[in-house]
Amino acid sequence: MNTDKIKAFVYAAECGSFSAAAKKQGKAQSWISNAISDLEIDLNLSLFDRSGYKPTITNEGAALLFHAKNMIASETTLLSHAHHLSSGIEDRIVLAIDDWLMTKKMRQLIVDFQLTFPTVELVVRQLMTQDIVYLIEKNEVDVGLATGRWFFDKSIRFQTIDYIETCLICSKGNPLTKTPVGHADLFGFKQVSRSSIYNLEHKYIDLPDIERVNVSDMESVITLVENDIGWAVIPKSVALENQERIDIIESEISEKGHLLRIELITPELKANGVATQWLKRHLINHY
User: Domains in the chain, ordered, with CATH?
Assistant: First the structure.
């Protein structure tokens, strides 16, 4: 069905006259009148009552107006989507972010992306770094933000874009706070860690040969540590925000209580279209 006829119907109903609809659509009034008449023939319905000074929409026309507006919106979406695809803009991007890095500023970046590329389906997955690495290697993620230094084969591109400071935490008054701790000092204490979907270890955070309690979110980590269930490695900024609940442990353990790299990771096999390039550039500028 000719969408110009649909637009003539919608504009006439919204503007209240055929002349106003003609002006809005950039057509002659006679064209609007003929287009609506043709549409009424196609639909076998009267859309306007023309017996008065101005045409008024009929009950049948009012019932169809919502669907007519949806047809126009669908056409606009179709044309916009087609334009993006022809311009090298991807249809779908999967972004995986370590949950330590999901800040208010990061969420605003996601909003900005959707405003810039409204036709792109952006899938954002908030995961543990080891799960992000696993999915990157399986070519199921387009762009990843991970913590730590991971080594890949040549099919994976990675770039260090910043660092995040971490620290060890324990409950208030825990003996671990009395002296700088090493690996051996943590035996007998459980490590509270974030859960991995694929039951994988984070080699820069999970200590070997230590019993662990796995939970799904940062608040649960802090709550368990606060209640003396164990110790944990978390971003120092988060620890400082919760000092009334937990203590920071002075650590002698390499990579624990120090800096972790923030890595931007992309699989070589994934196409780097316009939207992906925008996303990578703004993630780098984010830091």
Answer: 3-86 (1.10.10.10), 92-161+261-286 (3.40.190.10), 164-258 (3.40.190.290)
Please, what is the end-to-end C-alpha distance for the chain in angstroms? 50
- Cβ of 76: how many Cβ atoms within 10 Å? 11
Long-range Cβ pairs for the range 132-140 (8 Å, 24+): 132/96, 132/97, 132/98, 132/265, 133/265, 134/198, 134/200, 135/96, 136/96, 136/265, 136/266, 136/267, 137/267, 139/267, 139/269, 139/270, 140/94
Q: What is the pLDDT of residues 121-147, one digit of tens each?
A: 999 999 999 999 999 988 899 999 999
pLDDT along the chain (287 residues), means of 10: 85 89 89 91 91 88 91 76 66 93 94 92 94 92 92 84 93 89 87 91 85 92 96 93 94 69 86 86 91
Burial (Cβ within 10 Å: 0-12, 13-18, ≥19) of residue 176? buried
